[in-house]
């Protein structure tokens, strides 16, 4: 049969190239299911048992017998046959399967290699058409029918997702986009937003109603140019949803083949349970979703679509069962040579390992998913998976891999497409440039994310972008603007009733106000947090502890701050927040040193050196040098302190730790009478000298050393006025010396008392 072409029903089967066409459209069918179909055709005169198929196609593999069911299901989808009313592949109960179609052999392709392509007879259509379904509107008058909003919609989305001609917007993007509008916004307004924000060509809007014992679905599908209406009636909603998927396919591809269903059960209970499960998934009610999926599986034991959904839910629940199920599904999908299914399972497994914070395994599965995706998944799927993988690379400080992934994604996130993905890409670009020390480029990227979120009315996204802009502002020394940005991010999260998202902007604000020495503002921020239920997630508790530690440190209560930071470090490590875990170490070392717990600080040094990729983390390396310099200063070894502080300043990327090293190093040089060395360390530090209280204090010290006594007095006054906490006694003493010198104008500066601590540590 190797060179033959067969026709049956609405299908054409080309044996040599392993191609299946349904109504002129080539179908996606993996090699193993294709071979099963050919084998059934070859032995169409009899029933072929499951055991025979297992022995023939999976002879040496430890495979669950349900792999045969999966292969048959894929074959039926590809040839337009349906288990409920099968006419081509009959199931003989407890016996096996038999091909029952009327078979016609056609002429094989010509020797010239030019073969008849059924697709050429059909009207030209785009390779993919982008479509978004809005959440269905329940107008049945029944409160218990709220599951149709996301549940019934999800069934239709999954059915349409099996059609290779369609790119259907994932529900997570749809719901994120709709956050830009009030929930009661009219359907046309929501459709316009989705088209603009997600870059889709068509939007479908569905209203579910009821008249007596009949339900009806009223669907408008279209774009700015034209709209088509579909109305369906029937007694059972999930059946109507399946019919709607086929109607939408017909509306989009009038001359094309029918849409194969992702889930097609003859049992209405299974269909309704799956719809309710998908509603729960959309609402992130994972335990409820898991229970409902089990109801479906009790009826449809081996349905791979439901098993894959179960895997995703188990991953979200951080349930160890996900790993067993994932391995089982991978074995079956590989046995059927179904690359697309294997890629989907790898993605789900990657998410499961990410939830468990096992990043090496997560990277393995995501890399496998991406290697299998080309030609089998949509651009949006590949972009999303690549961006997820890039976020892990950034956490690993693997910046070369991050750059490679983002460069690969860039062509997939064009300005006219999915703006949510584009914002995510720009955000990762911003983090990459910030972590590699290119703050001007990081600022450009974060500004673009701010503009895009404002343009599209994404208020929660805008809060995140403003928080990122505040973080970049801190690193550049623009503290007053950073505080304004941080306040906007904090207020946005509060107003949008997003308590789970408010702890990070709260922490960023507290960091800014610690740098500005404004404990009353930190108390205000913490007071707002105290009024909110921010959830029990480890990272939320950790951020709250870190914010409280900023207050204690600002008040000089470093022992208390250290205790809070120790607990926060453990929680961040548990939550897999690796970047935050690293910077928390620096604050912990600071509090331990300043509270006199030198031995504990040395132990933390050792723990930091043992962190993965420590040799690539310049900030962590530099802050260790910085605190070694502080320790040398406390022990009276000023030469070693100067040497280590200069090394720290040249190692730490731009940011407040870099500023502290430069300011403290310059102060040490001043005390040694090395004016030129002090000025050299402060080149390009103008924002820190003008807005950062230790910078203002240093300016006064430098002016005094230069003999500008009146200017030194004015600079010292600006320092005192900039803070709202108690002025350290040493600075009060300096202020008195400056003022006396301004009154008496001595020929040369009088010696100053030796500082008990370097300025950034006071």
Helix content: 55-70%
The CATH class of the domain at 129-301 is Alpha Beta
Task: Compute the average pLDDT.
Answer: 86
Strand content: 5-15%
Query: Total strand count, please?
Result: 13
Note the total helix count.
Answer: 33
CATH topology (fold) name of the domain at 129-301: Double Stranded RNA Binding Domain
Distance between the termini: 85 Å
pLDDT < 50 runs, ≥5 residues = 109-127
Shape: elongated
Secondary-structure content class: alpha+beta
Keywords:
elongated; alpha+beta; single chain; Serine Threonine Protein Phosphatase 5, Tetratricopeptide repeat; 8% strand; 762 residues; 33 helices; Arc Repressor Mutant, subunit A
Commentary on this structure:
The protein is α+β, with helices and mostly antiparallel strands. Among the domains are: 5-121, Winged helix-like DNA-binding domain superfamily/Winged helix DNA-binding domain (Arc Repressor Mutant, subunit A, Orthogonal Bundle), CATH 1.10.10; 129-301, Double Stranded RNA Binding Domain (2-Layer Sandwich), CATH 3.30.160; 624-761, Alpha Horseshoe (Serine Threonine Protein Phosphatase 5, Tetratricopeptide repeat). The chain is 60% helix and 8% strand. It has 33 helices and 13 strands. The strands form three sheets. Strands 8, 9, 10, 11, 12 and 13 form a six-stranded mixed beta sheet that branches. Strands 4-3-2-1-7 form a five-stranded antiparallel beta sheet, with no helix packed on it. α10 (304-316) runs antiparallel to α11 and α20 (503-515) packs parallel to α22. The longest helix has 18 residues, at 459-476. The termini are far apart.
